[in-house]
C-alpha cells in the first residue's frame, strides 16, 4: 500500500483533491505539464512553468527533476 500525501492548496489546484500517493501526484503533474505544453521546445527535459505551476516550483525555467523534488 502506497503512503498518501496531504496536498497544499497550490498543488491541489493542479492535481485535484488529495490525499493521494506520491506516484499519482507525479503523474498528475506530468499530465498538467503536457496538457499545457510547458516543456521547453529546445530541451524537453526543461519545464517553463506557467502561473499555477510557478506557485509551487518558482517561475524560472528548470529541469523536470526540480519540479518533482518541489512536490
Tell me the layout of helices and strands.
Blueprint lengths: L3 E2 L3 H7 L4 E2 H14 L10 E2 L3 H7 L4 E2 H7 L1
Antiparallel strand pairs: 1-2, 3-4
Please give a structural write-up:
- By secondary structure, this protein is mostly helical.
- The protein is built from 4 helices and 4 strands, in the order E-H-E-H-E-H-E-H.
- It has helices spanning 9-15, 22-35, 51-57, 64-70; strands spanning 4-5, 20-21, 46-47, 62-63.
- Helix 1 crosses helix 3.
- It starts with a strand and ends with a helix.
- The model has no long low-confidence stretch (mean pLDDT 85).
Which features does this protein show?
single chain, 4 strands, mainly alpha, two-stranded antiparallel ribbon, globular, 11% strand, 71 residues
Largest sheet: 2 strands, antiparallel
- Report mean pLDDT, rounded to a whole number: 85
Alpha-beta content class: mainly alpha
Q: Give helix % range.
A: 40-55%
**How big is the Rg?**
12 Å
Low-confidence stretches: none
The helix tally amounts to 4
Distance between the termini: 20 Å
**Strand order in space, largest sheet:** 1-2
The fraction of residues in strands falls at 5-15%
Order of H and E elements: EHEHEHEH
Extended strand count: 4
Shape, principal axes of CA atoms:
globular
Describe the structure concisely for a colleague.
The protein has 71 residues and is mainly alpha-helical. It is built from four helices and four strands, in the order βαβαβαβα.
Amino acid at each position: 500500500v502506497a503512503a498518501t500525501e496531504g496536498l497544499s492548496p497550490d498543488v491541489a489546484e493542479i492535481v485535484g483533491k488529495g490525499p493521494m500517493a506520491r506516484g499519482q501526484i507525479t503523474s498528475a503533474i506530468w499530465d498538467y505539464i503536457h496538457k499545457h505544453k510547458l516543456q521547453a521546445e529546445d530541451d524537453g527535459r526543461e519545464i517553463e512553468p506557467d502561473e499555477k505551476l510557478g506557485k509551487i516550483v518558482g517561475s524560472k525555467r528548470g529541469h523536470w527533476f526540480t519540479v518533482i523534488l518541489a512536490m
